[in-house]
Every structure is written in C-alpha cells, then in structure tokens.
Amino acid sequence: MRILHVSDCYLPRLGGIEVQVADLVRAQSDAGHHVEVATATPGERVAGVHRVVARMPFDLPVHPFGGRHLLRLMTARRPDVVHVHTGAVSPFAWMGVRAAVRAGLPVVVTVHSMWDPVTRAVYRGLDGVFGWSRWRIVGTAVSQAAAVPIRAVAGRRVPVDVVSNGLDVSAWRPADLARPEGTGEVHIVAVGRLAPRKQPVRLLRLLLEARRRVPKEVAMRATLVGDGPARGSMVRFLRAHDMEGWVSLPGRYSRDQIRELLASADVFVAPAPRESFGIAALEARAAGVPVVARAQSGVADFVRPGKEGLLGGTFDELVRSVARLARDRELRELIARHNRETELTRCAWPAVLEGFERSYELAAARV
Fold first, then answer.
1. DSSP assignment, residue 276?
2. How many C-beta atoms lie closer than 10 Å to residue 77's C-beta?
3. Which region is the signal sequence (predicted)?
C-alpha cells in the first residue's frame, strides 16, 4: 500500500506527535508498505520526506500556500491513502485534508490532542464555513477520552475509531521480570515537556502535598525529566519550598536514559488533566512501574485503578494516590508485578497497524 502521511510537525523536531508519526512510518515500512511524509517542518533532506517549508516567524510549521503544494504532490504521487495527523490547531495538516479531498483520495485524520471547549467551538465554526464533516473522511483518536469530544462535534457523518499510539513493548519490558532490591526510598518519576499546559508547577505542588502525608521515616525522592518554558517557574517553586534536596530536574533524556531511569522508579506520575494519550505513562506501564494519572485522561485506556496503577479525578485524589503508593510497599509491588507480567497487546505495533488498516479500508470505501 502507498501511504502518504501529512503532519505539521515532524523530525528533527522532538515531541509527542513528531516521534509517534516517525515510529508509525518506520513500522509501516517494516511491514512492507511504501510510506512517505509531507511536513512543514524544516530539516535536512531525507528520502521519502517532502518538506513544504516557508520562512515563518519562530520557525512555525505552517505554509501560506501549503494546500497548493500538497495538491500537486498528491496528484503526482497518487497514494492509496492520505493519513493526516493533527493536534488541537494544525493549519498545514488541514490543508492536507482539503487537498486530499480535492484529489479524490481516501483520507484518514488522526487527532493526537484533546479538544477542549474552545477547540470544539472553533471546529464547529470551521464546519459551518467549510463543511468538513461532509468530506467523507474517516477519523481516529488516540484514546476514548480524546474520541468523545471529536464525535460530539463531527456527529454521525464522520466515523471516529480509537487507534492507540504504538509502542515497541518489548524494548521497554524489563529483561529481568523480578523486581531488583530497592534502596528503601520511594523513587517517583515523571517525564514530559515542561510546558504550562502540562501544569508542571502543579505537579510539584502535588509532590509537596504527598510528602506531607507520608511519614517522615519513609524516604522519598522525585526525578522530573523534560525541558520547556515552565522550567524557570519550577526552579523557583523548588527553592521557595525547600524541595531541591529531594526533587531533581535533570532536563531532557534520551529514550535509553528514560528506560534506565524507569528501572529504578517506584511510581510514575502523569497528572495532566487533558492528556490525550500519555506515551510516557505507557512506557512506564510497559517497564512495570505503577502509574498515577487523571481518570479523565487518555491514560485511563491502559491503566485501571488497583491493577496497573491508581487514577484520580481531582488534584486531591492524585495526592492521596501518590501518598498511598509511597506508604504501601505491598501495593506498589503487587501493581509492579502485574505490569511486568501482563502483555500490552493493544498498544503494540501489530495491533496499531491493524487498526489503521481498518480505517484505511473504510476511507477507501467512503470515497
């Protein structure tokens, strides 16, 4: 099958969508498909990657005439399906949707973000102007939580399936299923971009409140991996609350470094309320680490309360969950053993590729 992926953001930029699309391209290529990418992200020339780039402020991945260039590309290449990847607002990607519709090609649109009330209002307005819900496209979302608001806006005219983000589960699964002997302290880990929408300062407040609810004889430390514009605010919070002795901000880690870090982790925390999926939480779950996350987020697709971790609907419930796991070693070890011994089949690449192939077939039938 000839597949053309369209995404505003792609490598060499590093982010959730960029890395996930690149991994999907690699997995589909390994499965024997002919896969190409069209993106507005600048970068070096790579075979199969078409960079539709314009000089924009702050290197924004948009192009004022992207639709024209994409239509020419699609007309020349004639892929069997155009697979478009969007965040909350992705102008270039939606130019790709429109170009594919004009070219008469099957279109699958994967939404990688949660549509909040403002985003839903924007897409309702765009539907009123352009009528995109009548374009015979097929939608997918990365989780049940992300699919609900999309279906509310698109209605019955756009089928929206849930296809999980993919993960090479075997690469994160610990080689030794037996948990190594710990040092006696509880190591809490979080991984993600330090951006305001992820509420990283609120994560620090969560850790502070949990520390206050755990007996002093229980040693705790936290490692918060990532970088971003909120780092300065986090450093100031740590200083103001005397947390620098047990909370560290080491910056961005490679995948190998994250894998090594998770081997020493006792609890993984993913507190963002509008997390559409949570690939870092999935990696922790695959590595055997109990996960604490929001019940309203996409993490709930692969974390069940008391099984793979603990979920909380409010900030206080998240605090109680972290404190409970810090105090209760038996519960931590029970969840960790379950995570190490249970396969994550629905998030493994064979299941993800099968899900997208069903969407491709449906898109072809609708055209």
1. S
2. 16
3. none
